[in-house]
Amino acid sequence: MAYNHIVILTGAGISAESGLSTFRDAGGLWAGHRIEDVATPEGFARDAALVHHFYNLRRAQLNEVRPNAAHLAIANFAQTHTGTLTVITQNVDDLHEQATNGHDMPQGYSLLHMHGELRKARCLATEEIFKWHDTMDASTPCPCCNKPKRLRPHIVWFGEMPLYMDLIGHHLRRCDLFVSIGTSGNVYPAAGFVQQVRSTGNGHTIEINMEPSQGHSLFHEKIYGAATQTIPEFFINL
Ligand code: BJW
């Protein structure tokens, strides 16, 4: 069956084989950290130095990693797909961008970073967003107001509203295929997208992950295995 409006949701599992740790697997990103300390606005208010350090290390790590066969398979598929293809990523890395880099992407393709981006910073006062490739700390002057203590990583922490929610809702309502890749289904609202698609009655839903996610029973189809194996095979046959 040919699908016209496809939504792909990706999580940390798609980037794992590029060398970026997931969150909840053993030895993951939060090992050695309390989530409340590094992934909440309250943690940032308490100890900005710790939070900046955590994200500075992860931003620097992006220089060392490349998209893997799963990111590339999605990018290749996007080039030939004639309907719309919306990639909603929970990831703050830029491996989907790197995978499409240098290619003219069709008009129907879009990529939405619902949990923000490591390579962006935001001014706490004006909400202006800047491309950011270096380290930052509390003393870094903000480019718009030239004052210290104004910059934060452009990341959606717990308790904050994820980005592009209206646009995401629009794509979920009209999609005829929803594919969830490499996410444990622990974090809302992303974990609820499959239910939103099911409630429309028109979308086929597929989970592709290393293991069954929290919401696995909600999907019509499931494929389990490493993303670099399962994803290229899946998109070649779609
Ligand atoms: C592989 C693989 C390989 C490994 N191949 N697979 C009580 C009930 C319900 C909700 C709430 C609640 N209390 C609070 C909430 C809301 C809260 C929430 O969901 N909390 C839960 C813990 C319960 N959510 C929020 O606060 C969000 N905001 C919000 O809800 O606003 C209100 C709102 C209401 C209604 C509509 C809209 C908004 C904000 C959430 C922000 C999440 N931010 C983080 C941190 C970002 C910064 C950073 O990167 O450091 O985003 S949390 C972290 O988890 C990160 C990820 O994007 C996110 C999801 O993780 P992901 O991607 O699923 O990774 P893992 O590690 O969990 O899973 C990896 C999977 O890959 C595993 O299954 C592996 O098996 C698999 N895998 N290798 C294939 N090679």
Task: Please describe what this structure looks like.
With 238 residues, this protein is an alpha/beta fold. The chain has two domains: 5-19 and 67-115 and 163-237, TPP-binding domain (Rossmann fold); 21-64 and 116-155, SIR2/SIRT2 'Small Domain' (2-Layer Sandwich). It is built from nine helices and nine strands. It has helices spanning 13-16, 35-38, 41-46, 48-61, 69-80, 95-100, 165-174, 193-200, 227-237; strands spanning 5-10, 84-89, 109-113, 116-123, 129-131, 151-155, 177-181, 204-209, 221-224. Strands 3-2-1-7-8-9 form a six-stranded parallel beta sheet, with helices on both faces. Strands 5-4-6 form a three-stranded antiparallel beta sheet. The N and C termini lie close together (8 Å). The model has no long low-confidence stretch (mean pLDDT 96). Bound molecules: ligand BJW. Ligand BJW binds at residues 11-13, 16-17, 22-25, 28, 39, 90, 92, 115, 155-162, 165, 182-184, 186-189, 209-211, 213, 226-227.
Q: Could you name the key traits of this structure?
A:
single chain; 238 residues; Rossmann fold; SIR2/SIRT2 'Small Domain'; 2 domains; 9 helices
